Predict the 3D structure of the following.
Amino acid sequence: MPGLLDEWVQRWRTLVVPLRRQFGFKITGSWVDRSLDQHIWVVFYTGPGSFEEANAAYWASPERVAMDLNPRDYLVSEVTRQVETVL
């Protein structure tokens, strides 16, 4: 949501990133585009099972539920893309 970018990034950095890492995800980059009021980040998973399975386990975990952080309170929209490495 407009005006909440810095608050979102702070909460994402202190809450989401550590828990994602605990579930085996790696965050390889994070950027803020202030002109568009956007946060962009790259996350990948190479552990056992698929990304979708690990992501579902992350969202269903008691730690994530207890976080009391709903991205919809901060985000107007979300774009998720699955890509493959070529280099």
